[in-house]
Predict the structure.
Amino acid sequence: MLRELVTIFRSDKPLKSMGDNFAKMLSIAEEMTLAAGEIYFASDSKPEDRTAVYERDIKVNKLERTIRKQVVAHLSIGGHKVDLPYCLFLMSLVKDVERIGDYAKNLAEVKDFYPGALPDDEISKELKEIQHGVESAFERAGDIFANSDREAAIDLIQQARRIAQRCDALVVKVARSEYDSGTTTAAVLGTRFYKRIGAHVLNILSSVVMPLHKLDYYDEDAVVE
């Protein structure tokens, strides 16, 4: 279904406008993730840096509402019921991108109570590796989605799952560390927000390999077939 949807996005059909808006959403959410990461790991940050993240989040939310309106308008016109599965498909993906924007905003907001940098230690090193893995997956996800590249999607899904496992393990390390309460909270929140961003990127990738009714509920055995 994704390959057919992408083909429609590239045509002159009404769904193309929705596809263009979705691509904008995805691009802005990626920008937010990168900017939020810079803020989170910085020794200090300027208020305007976080304001820029919030402004991008507003754009993401507006695009989500625009796409919803486009879907409703499109399906209310006779003869477009055939596009219903594609519209449902798109609505699911749009929600994932919107959630990425929220978690990126949350990541930047950690600075509100923890203005300094995390300790230069093994935990921070692991968290930065997780950051790199999530950002790298996000960078590749757009092309994989646009090209309906099943093999690349499977490879990246497996990488994203390993990142999620590393996040879970890192939370345990933080809990057993000698961090003070502020550092512990900042490290745990950063780890969880990166896990959630990665999970929603993974959901988008699942659209390449799973049918509509199984979006977000990919089965590992089914994926690797």
Summary: Residues 26 and 220 are 25 Å apart (CA to CA).
